[in-house]
Amino acid sequence: MTVNLTARSATALDDVVQLTQDTKTDVINRALQVYAFLEKIMHDGGAVYIREAESTDFERLKFF
Questions:
Q1: Would you list the domain boundaries of the chain?
Q2: What is the band of 5 on the pLDDT scale with cuts at 50, 70, 90?
Q3: Is the pTM higher than 0.85?
Q4: Residue 63 pLDDT greater than 90, yes or no
Q5: Which of 5, 23, 46, 53 could connect to 9 by a Cys-Cys bridge, CB 3.0–4.6 Å?
Q6: How far apart are CA 47 and CA 61, in angstroms?
Q7: Which of 29, 47, 30 is nearest to 38 (CA)?
């Protein structure tokens, strides 16, 4: 399989590889699994909330 990434996506991939020390293949596989999980939750009527470090406010995650 070949994937053509935008510059922004390629930078994000490199950032995650640096943070996790995983391979690019592992990062892409994990990203797809997480994305599928989140989409299923939202498709089934659920919601996903995130909170940044040192914040008490939760924000609802939305994909466009």
A1: 7-60
A2: very high
A3: no
A4: no
A5: 5
A6: 7
A7: 47
